[in-house]
Design a protein that fits this description.
The strands form five sheets. The protein has a six-stranded mixed sheet. It has three domains: 112 residues, Beta Barrel (OB fold (Dihydrolipoamide Acetyltransferase, E2P)), CATH 2.40.50.100; 50 residues, Irregular (Dihydrolipoamide Transferase); 215 residues, Chloramphenicol acetyltransferase-like domain (Chloramphenicol Acetyltransferase), CATH 3.30.559.10. A hairpin with a 2-residue loop joins strand 18 and strand 19. The protein is flat and about 100 Å long. The chain starts with a strand and ends in a 7-residue tail after the last helix. The protein is built from ten helices and 19 strands. It has 429 residues and is α+β, with helices and mostly antiparallel strands.
């Protein structure tokens, strides 16, 4: 969005540059880097800045022409969508009035005209108002009172109690008149830890990190999903012997290395064709049944999680799925994914099997009705004709939105998925 300040003369008009909405879920952005500084000349199409959105770091073009007159946000600063970030115009042009009007319209206070902070009268030191409170004595630094002869001042009863409890009365802080040790001082006494206890003194510490734009969006979307969609979960154990063997054979002829995750993506796509209600979305007053199959593949990145989408996965060979997922993985690490890469999912899978996780439940990724959580393929045993044989099994858990998918439908989907993975040749015909 741009705003132009018009003048009566023929001068180049100063122009407000605002932060555009660079993804469908973006509400604010962080200026990672300015590519131009105040005074530099820019033209339409130049990359003015790098902006961290809720999904990736993206280039922001400027559509104004002239010189950069003002940069309103420092690098690392956060600004809401449609917020003022810069002004472009003729060198030396007065832009303050334009900036004031733009920020007033956005209800954003002007920093240089912010009202001065109210100066409150300095609070007198406590000693000037009232006698200083008596500090509670601590065992580590007792205040021991004694007379001029070095004798500890204590009541007879306090001495007797100290003797009975084995307390060194010289280490007790007195709270009686003139620092005299009395009965309650002995009863409340706690010995200080000593160096001979063998326990090192602990130090409390912590670190706080700024929440990234991506993490904010993950928190908001998944919290909304968890507390809006009524989740239920179905877990199934699948025999992976034939899938593992088939993968070995495929990799002997494939130009790209096919992973077990690639096989699951393909199997899910084909199973969704047979169970289209699982490939659906809840839209409050209606259910959208998607006839196309776009599978989101959850990927961990430094700041959180991205879900790029394999489009028309049912129509693609496994090798193409593998190449596409690998490309997405590289772009995700480099923060080069674009909005088109992560939009349009109709079903999502999340795989933690490579980390040795046996099974887990995942939160549904809106607008999907389901998400599949994949565990690791583990060694197990099976009995065939009375013989105990080694085998490989993998547990998968389907999280379902009960508003769209019922238990029987989810169970049938998992049965179909298992049939494809236990007989991989059926995915090739």
């Amino acid at each position: 969005m741009r705003e132009i300040s018009y003048f009566c003369n023929d001068k180049i008009m100063a122009e407000i540059v605002r932060l555009p909405k660079m993804s469908d879920t973006m509400t604010e952005g962080v200026i990672v880097k300015w590519n131009y500084k105040v005074g530099d000349a820019v033209k339409s199409g130049d990359i003015l800045a790098e902006v961290e959105t809720d999904k990736a770091t993206m280039d922001m073009e400027v559509y104004a022409k002239g010189n950069v007159l003002h940069l309103d946000i420092e690098e690392g600063g956060t600004v809401p969508v449609d917020g003022v970030i810069a002004i472009v115009g003729k060198e030396g042009e007065d832009f303050k009035e334009l900036l004031e009007e733009a920020k007033a319209a956005s209800a954003i206070p002007i920093e240089e005209e912010a009202p001065a902070a109210e100066v409150k009268p300095e609070t007198p030191a406590p000693s000037a108002l009232a006698p200083a409170p008596i500090a509670t004595p601590t065992p580590a630094a007792p205040v021991v009172q004694s007379n001029t002869n070095g004798r500890v001042v204590a009541s007879p009863l306090a001495r007797k109690l100290a003797s009975e409890k084995g307390i060194d009365i010289a280490a007790v802080a007195g709270t009686g008149e003139g620092g005299r040790i009395i009965k309650r001082d002995i009863e409340n006494y706690t010995p200080a830890a000593t160096a001979t206890s063998g326990a090192p003194a602990g130090v409390e510490s912590f670190e706080e990190i700024k929440v990234s734009q991506m993490r904010k969006t993950i928190a908001g979307r998944l919290a909304e999903s968890k507390f809006t969609a009524p989740h239920f979960y179905l877990t199934k154990e699948i025999n992976m012997d034939h899938a593992i063997a088939s993968r070995v054979q495929m990799n002997e002829v494939s130009e790209v290395k096919i992973s077990m995750n690639d096989l699951v993506v393909k199997a899910c796509a084909l199973a969704l064709k047979k169970h289209p209600m699982v490939n659906s979305s809840w839209l409050d007053t209606k259910i959208r049944i998607n006839h196309h199959i776009h599978i989101g593949v959850a990927m961990a990145v430094e700041d959180g999680l991205l879900v790029p989408v394999v489009r028309f996965a049912d129509q693609k060979p496994i090798s193409s799925i593998s190449a596409e997922v690998k490309e997405y993985g590289q772009k995700a690490k480099e923060k080069k994914l674009q909005p088109a890469d992560w939009s349009g999912n109709t079903f999502t899978i999340s795989n933690l099997g490579m980390f040795g996780i046996d099974e887990f439940t995942a939160i549904i990724n809106p607008p999907d009705a389901c998400i599949l959580a994949i565990g690791s393929a583990k060694d197990a045993i099976k009995i065939v004709d009375g013989q105990v044989l080694p085998t490989k099994t993998m547990k998968v858990t389907l999280s379902c939105d009960h508003r769209v998918v019922d238990g029987v439908l989810g169970a049938k989907f998992l049965q179909t998925l298992a049939n494809y993975l236990e007989n991989p040749v059926t995915m090739l015909v």
